[in-house]
Structure formats: structure tokens, C-alpha cells
Amino acid sequence: DAGVTQSPTHLIKTRGQQVTLRCSPKSGHDTVSWYQQALGQGPQFIFQYYEEEERQRGNFPDRFSGHQFPNYSSELNVNALLLGDSALYLCASRAGRNEKLFFGSGTQLSVL
Amino acid sequence: DQQVKQNSPSLSVQEGRISILNCDYTNSMFDYFLWYKKYPAEGPTFLISISSIKDKNEDGRFTVFLNKSAKHLSLHIVPSQPGDSAVYFCAAVETYSGAGSYQLTFGKGTKLSVIP
User: By the 8 A CB rule, do B64 and B72 touch?
Assistant: First the structure.
């Protein structure tokens, strides 16, 4: 049983560019959320998708947007990249109202 | 304003001894708490959790204690093993904050080193 899978694992971009990160949830999971983990910090909630709609959003600007597809997979898009967007981006999934959140290995984004 | 705090950035423990990792929270609406373990270059792995209606939950070598009045929880690992060396994150969630919403709030983590 595959867990949460994310692609790519590493990415290097320059300031002002746009990036798309992808996530496939664990089998049987229908809810996907995204977190940003800066160096030395805990993961910070970006937003959550359920039934292809954004259900909740953390304190992140509109440059961060997302999408969930009918097969429950998800994308995170970041526009107009800033140096401060350099971080590990984690995707997590859960099944229904189960309290346990399962995380992928993340995408390490470096903005130069 | 940090709602979940892990005040010890690091902890070193001898193999076989007990490891105690602490976590404090400020939001009284949090009703479910989780501990995650993270190795370098990997995502956080779920370890153990506890509901606010309980004060203790045990799973093998891992036990989580919750003191609601003090807004404090702790993770005990007994006995500690070298493979337990990792960063441990405490997370909290308000499970009834709204339809479909589920937002974990994490602490900054504690790096545990278990010395052979």
C-alpha cells in the first residue's frame, strides 16, 4: 500500500518564477492538506482540500494556490517566488474524519 | 503567537533510559494531540496521539500524558533506543473547528539523540 507520494523531491527556482508541486494521497484517503516547513521550524498549515474544494486556509498569501482532482490527488502552485519561499513542502492526507494525518516525504524547494 | 511550544530544542539520553519530551499549548480549544517523528530527508511519521478526554495513551515503548489543566503534554519513550534518534514534533488540532476543516498546529520540534 503506497503512502503519500510527492513529486518532485527537489526543485531549484529563481525569484519571480512559478512552481507546481504534486501529491498523491494514501490509498483510501480523500482529504489532502499542504504544509510548509522552514528550516528549524515546525510545519505550517497552508490549506486543505476536500471534494475538490479548498476548505480551510492558513496564513499564506494568494500567491499560494492549489487544486484537488477527482482522483483526490492535489497540486500546490506558488507564483512570483520569493527567497523566503525556500522550504520543505509537505503534503498530508487523511481518510474522512480520521484524526491521523499521514505525510509524504516532501518537496525541497530552493529559491535563488 | 506560538500556540504549541516545545521549549527544548534538543535532548540527549543514554540507550536504555527514559526519554521525556515536553510540549505546552495555549489554545484551550485544542482537543486532539499528536506526536510525529521525523528523520532527515523524510516526512513526519505519525507516532502516537491522545484525545483531550483522556490523560494517558500507551503504545508499546511510547506513552503520551496529557494534563489539560496545565495545558501540557509529554511523550515518554522507555527504553530509549539509538533508532529513536530523530526530531519529534508535537501537534495539536481543534477537531470541531468547522465542516471539513482539520488544521494541525505544530511545535518547533525537539531533536532527540539516543547515545549507545
Answer: no
Q: Considering only CB atoms, which chain A residues are within 8 Å of B106?
A: 42-44
Facing residue for A45 by CB, picked from B42, B103, B107: B103
Cβ–Cβ below 8 Å for B99 and A55? yes
Helix (H, G, I), strand (E, B) or coil at B82: helix
Q: How far is B14 from chain A (nearest CA, A)?
A: 24
Higher per-residue pLDDT: B42 or B15: B15
Q: Which residue of B has its CA nearest to A31?
A: B100
User: ∠ CA(A23), CA(A25), CA(A29), 5° rounding?
Assistant: 155
Encoded amino acid at A103, one letter: F
Rounded-to-integer distance, Cα B89 and Cα A90, Å: 14
Residues B31, B97 contacting (CB under 8 angstroms): no
CA B16 to each of CA A91, B33, B48, B63, B64: distance values in angstroms, whole numbers, following the listed order? 34, 26, 20, 15, 18
**CB-based burial, A71-106: b 16+ in 10 Å, e otherwise:** ebbbbbebeebeeebbbbbbbbbbeeeebebbbbbb
- Euclidean distance between CA atoms A38 and B18, whole angstroms: 30
Q: What is the pLDDT of residues A6-43, one digit of tens each?
A: 999 999 999 999 999 999 999 999 999 999 999 989 99
